[in-house]
Amino acid sequence: HNCFYDFLHLYQTFYGDLPENIQEFKANWLQLFPQALDTKYLAEAHELLSGLQPPSTLKGLCDFMVQASAKSDGIQAAGSPLPVTFEVSPLPGVDYKLPTASGTMPSRAQGPSDEAPEEEIDSSHEAGYDAMMTSIVLVHQLSHIMGKKRLPWDQLDFGPLRKRAADDQRRSLTEALPLSVNRIRLVRAQPNVVNLSGRDEADMSRHFLMSGYPQSWKKWDLMKVWSPLWVGLSYIDDSSC
Q: Which of 132, 141, 172, 240 is the most exposed place for a label (fewest CB within 10 A)?
């Protein structure tokens, strides 16, 4: 979620100095991680998720997806999100709690000798907790996508691309999400998406200036103007993008 700078930091910390240009970085990255998913890009661009109008922040998106899935609990209708369960195995000294359907997000539990906190603490923006939220968001997103496509969990293969037998119905992430894998959202940049496994869309002839709309308009008000055409938005100020 908003992960491109995290990818750069991860590469520089564990694998080597950053290359001189983006094309060399993409080639090196794919050798290490052939399939990457950005939960922010999925939420905004995937045809089966964008219509839900989810929030853009990680915490807001996590709350939203947990609540959206809770509404379909016990519903077995075709096209409903697939059932999911979670188990947290925290490191010693931390006790991360799963987000709840009510939207509350308990954070670390107190130690055995501490009194229980009177109110819950928001641990978003703590690296470990954000990593957990991102994982939860992705699982719920896949649950919605797989449910809409009438595909059970056992047909999704999280491993690398491989040759399959004719009767093997499993799909890799790349096969199940061909327009989403390796697309990473960039913030306040043009192009606003980097494609780690292909050419980046930098054709400015496909960019339009939209201005003069009410400052109170939100993202989805602007996108309705262009519907059913999907557009990405990069803001200039409160009334132009």
A: 240
